[in-house]
Amino acid sequence: MLDAFRADVRRLRSLPGYRSLAWWMLDQSFWVILTYRLLAGARGTALHAPLRVLEKLAEFVFKCYLPTTATIGPGLVIYHAFGIIVNGKTTIGANCTLYARVCIGNRFPGDGAPVIGDNVTIGTGACIFGPVVIPDHFVVKANAVITPSSMRASAPAPVSTPPHAGAPS
């Protein structure tokens, strides 16, 4: 639990523009990540259900829904946590970055949730819906909407070798 939070702090310290831990503690993102890590640490124990009340309180205070049932790897960085929504069945890999107003969830009840790889950056306002897999080292651009059908549509075309110059066609 705290090991993951320590990894979050180490990653933040390594980023350009980092000022100090005291400065970061004044930011809402610090408290969102700390609250998630502390409450998610109780997952699988008898304390988890009662602590979900604190999760709802944190959602109300921070205007950011990061449920403790979501699996989030170490090294999470959030810039401007306001308006972030993550589905409770989502898996987010290590060293991921989320910007403001990101929405990660299912398209309808019973639909699968996204799986986000390691070292992924998700830009402001991006929406990722349904059972999609975002590969490692991927950048989801600001305001992008990713669904299973858009992932198929944006898949690269098969590469073919060009015909040899001067060869008969």
List keywords for this structure.
alpha/beta, 31% helix, four-stranded parallel sheet, disordered C terminus, globular, 169 residues
Task: Please mark out the parts with pLDDT under 50 across 5 or more consecutive residues, or reply none.
Answer: 157-167
The side-by-side strand order for the widest beta sheet comes to 1-4-7-10
Number of strands: 12
Note the total helix count.
5
Secondary-structure element sequence? Answer: HHHHEEEEEEEEEEEEH
Shape category: globular
Describe the protein.
The chain is of the alpha/beta class and 169 residues long. Helix content is 31%, strand content 15%. It has 5 helices and 12 strands. It has helices at 2-14, 21-25, 28-40, 48-62, 148-153, and strands at residues 71-72, 77-78, 85-86, 91-92, 97-98, 103-105, 115-116, 121-122, 127-129, 133-134, 139-140, 145-146. It has a 4-stranded parallel β-sheet, with no helix packed on it. A 4-stranded parallel β-sheet has the order 2-5-8-11. The protein has a 4-stranded parallel β-sheet with strand order 3-6-9-12. Helix 3 (28-40) packs antiparallel against helix 4 (48-62). It is globular. The N and C termini lie far apart (63 Å). The relative contact order is 0.11. Residues 157-167 have low confidence and may be disordered.
Topology, element by element:
Layout (H helix, E strand, L loop, with lengths): L1 H13 L6 H5 L2 H13 L7 H15 L8 E2 L4 E2 L6 E2 L4 E2 L4 E2 L4 E3 L9 E2 L4 E2 L4 E3 L3 E2 L4 E2 L4 E2 L1 H6 L16
Helix pairs in contact: 1-3, 3-4
